[in-house]
Amino acid sequence: MTHDERESGRLWQRVRDRLATAVRGRLPDPPPDLQLLRVSCEVAPAALRPLLEARRLTEAILGEARPKPPDRAKSLRRRTLFGEAPERATEAVLVELWNHLAQQPGSRWVVVFDAVEQADEATLAALTQVVRRQGWLQLPLVLVFHGEPKEAAAELLLAVRTRDPAGVVRGEEPPSGEAQAIQWRTLPPEVLRVLRAGALIGPGFETRIVADLLSLEPLVVLELLQQATDLGLPVEDRGEGRFSLPTSALTALSTSLMPSLAQAWHRKLGRLLGARAGEEVAGAKPPRPPVPKPKPREKIPSAAQVAEIIDLSAEVVDLVDETGLAAQVASEMAAGTGFEDHGNSEAPAGTGEAAAAARGVSAGTGAGSGDSPQVSEETSAANSPGAPTWTVPGKGERSGPIDMSLGASSLAGLRAASPNVSPETGPNEQAEARPAGWSPARRKTIFAAPAAEPRAEEADPDGWGAPSRVVPTRLEDPLVDEARAAEHMRLAGEFDAAAQHLCEAARKAAEMGAPQAAAQHAHNALSLLATLPASATRRLLRVQALIELGRLQWQSAGYEFGFTLTQAQATLDMARAELGADAPVELAADLAQAIAGVCFDLGDPRSLGRALDELVAAGSMLQAAGDAIGAACLLNDQAAVLVRMGDPGRALQLLRQSRKVFDPHVNSDPVALRELAETEHLFARLPLHAQLRPGREAEGFEMGLEHARAAERAYRDLGEVRELGRVWETIGRLELRAGRTEAAKQRFDAAAEVQTQLGDLTGLAQTTEALSQVLALLGRDAEAVTLLRDSVVFNRDKGSPLGLQQNRRAFTELSERLAQRAEHAAGLQEVAILLSAGERELGALLQPPA
C-alpha cells in the first residue's frame, strides 16, 4: 500500500467516525458509500458565499424533510427604536440543517469545503467556530487546502490540529499543467470566448453566469467547456455547473482581452448580478388578500383602566388626532393600492374587527367609550396642503379626536407581498410583489420584504452538468450577488453603482446575522467613496454607508466585535454632518430613527431628549412626504422614550393613539399586529416606571402582566424571538414587583437564554442585573454577585450609561446586604472595580444635564 493510499484510508476512516479533518492537497475520490456535499471556496469569492452555497445545497438535499422555517409572512423585520432582530448566525443555521441531515435515513453525507484558503474572512471565522465547538456538528467536516493557508485560514487549520493532532492528512498531489505554454489564440473562437469570459468572472466561474454574459444557452457553454478539456486545457469541473482555471491560465486569458471589451463585460456582469439581487425587479400590484376570519382575542385592559391606576400629574383624556393621521393612513393606502373601501364588502358588519372599527370600539380592549371616540367623517383633511404637522402632545395638552374611519382592510397591501391567509394556519408564504404605494422609506423604516421561494422550474436548471453524487441546485443569493455586482461595477469604472451595491450588501449581511461581513462591506463602500471626487450623489452614498455601519455598531449580534453605543453615535453623527437639507426624506428619516435608537439605549437625560426630538422630526418628515403609516409606526417609539423619561401621561396618550390606528387591522395585516404587540409591551412597562395610586399597586402589576401576555402572544405569532426575550424580561420584572420571586426567575432565565443566543447585549445586560436581584432574594448570594458582575461587563462593553447607573444602584443594595459576609468581599470588590472603570470611561454621559 502506497503512502497516498494509507493517507486516503485514514481520511475516510476519520470521516466515518464523524471527525473534522483538514486535507493538504487534492481530495481523493470517496468510497461508494459516502455522498459529498461539496462547496468550492474559490468560485467568485465573496463574504459568506461558501456558507450560503452550503446552506442551499443542504436544503436541496433535504427537500421536504428540511426543518420548516418561521412563517415569513408573519415575521416582520422593521427597524424601530428597539432595533431590528437579526437572524441567527449563518453557521448556527447551517449546523442545525446539517444535524437534521445527519438524522435522515439512507446515504451518509460528508460536508466538504474545497480550496478553503481562498474563502473570505467571515466564512473562515464561522468554520473556525464550528471546528472548535466539539459535539456541535454531527456530520463529518472535511476542509481541503490547495495552497498555503494564511491569517484566518491558518487559524482554521490550527483549530483542526489543536482539536486533534491527527486531524490533518496529506491529500493527492495536484496535476501539473503548463498553462502559460498553451497557444490560446489558436483555439477555436467559440472556446476562447467562453474561457475569456470565465477568466473575467474569477478563479472559479459558473456556466449560468457565463451564459448570461455571452447570451448563450447554458448547455452550449457546457459543450464548449467539454471541447476545451478535450483539447487538453486545464479546466477543472467542480460540479454543479462550476469550473475553475489555474492562476497561470487566468493571467494569460485576462491579458489577451482588450481593455474596452473587459470594461464592457464587467459593466454587463455588474448589471446582471445586480438584477439577480433584486435591483431591477419591477414592482407589481399585489392581489388583494382575503380578509381572514377574526380570531377571538382575550380581553385586554383598556387604556382608561391603566390611567385610573397610574397616579398622573395631569389628567389623561381620550385622544383627539388634530393631525388627522389615522385618516391620512386610510387615504394613503386607498390611493396607494387603488382599492376602494372594501371593508363592508369583505367583512360583514357586526362581526369581528371590522364591525368593531365601524362602531368606534377597540376590539382588542373590550372597551367602548373609554378608549375609542366616535367615527369622524372628515377623512380628506389630512391630505390637504394645510394639513397640520406631526406633533407629540406636551404636558397637559389634549389632542383632537382620532379618525376611526379606517376600513378593516385599509392596511392591506402594505407589505411587499400579500399573504394568503387561512383561518386555520394564518398567513402563508407569499409571492414576490410590491404594492403600488410601496416606497423606499417604507421598506427601510417598516420592514424588509421577504425573499420569494424559488419557483419549482428553477430548482434544477437545464444545462447544469453535475456528478451523479452531487445534488444540483441554483445557487443565487442576494448578498453574494450584491458583492459581486459591486466588484464588477468597480472594474468597469462605475464607481457610484459599486458603492450602492456595497451598501446594500452591508444591509443584507446585517439582516442575516453576519456582522463581520456587514462591517466589511460598509467599510469597503466608504473606502471606495473616499478615493473619488466629491459629488451630491456620492455624499448620499456615504451617508447610506455610515447609517448601515452605525446601525451595525448599535445592534450587532455577538460580543466579539467590540461595537459600542458611543461608536455608533459617532458614526451616525458623521452621517448627519454629511446629510444635506435636500436629502431624500426616506434617508433622512432612516438616519433620525437610527440616532434615536442609539440615544434610547444610552438612556441618559440628554440622549433621551435627543431621541424624542429625532423621532418627532422623523414622523413629521414621513407624514409630510405622504408616508402616514411610517409616521404612525413611530408613535410607539416616542412613547417608549417618554416612559423612560418618566412621563407616563404623555406616553399613555401616544400608546392609545397607536392602538386606535392599528387595532382594527390586527387580524388582516401583520404590520398592525406588530405595532399592537409593541403597544401592549409598552403598556405593560408603564407600572414599572410610573407612580401607582396608593393601594392599587398589586392591581397595576397584574394589569401590566395582562398587557405583557398579549404582547407575548403577538410576538410568538410573528416569530420575533428577540422581542419575545424583551417581553419575558418585562414579565419577570412585573412578577418580581408583585412578590412572585420564583416566577420572575423562570422568566428571566428564559429571556437570558434567548438573548445569549441572539447576542442581544443590551437586553442581556438588563436581564442579568434583574436575575442578580432575584438570586439575592433567594439567598443565592454568590451567584447574585457573579451575575451583577456579568451585567456590569455587558454594559461596559456596550457603553451604556443607563445600564451602569442601574448597576450602581443594584451594587449599592447588594453590598449593603452582604457587608458582614466576608466570603463575598472579593467578588464585590471586583464588581466595584469594573463598575468604577466603566463610569470613568463614560464620564460625561453619566453627568446630569446642566
From TrEMBL:
Q: Where is this region: Disordered?
A: 277-300, 337-439, 451-470
Bias (Polar residues): 371-383, 419-428
Biased-composition ranges, Low complexity, are 346-362, 405-418
InterPro entries with a match to the protein in the record: TPR-like_helical_dom_sf
Q: What is this protein called?
A: Tetratricopeptide repeat-containing protein
The opening ranks of the lineage are: Bacteria, Pseudomonadati, Myxococcota, Polyangia, Nannocystales
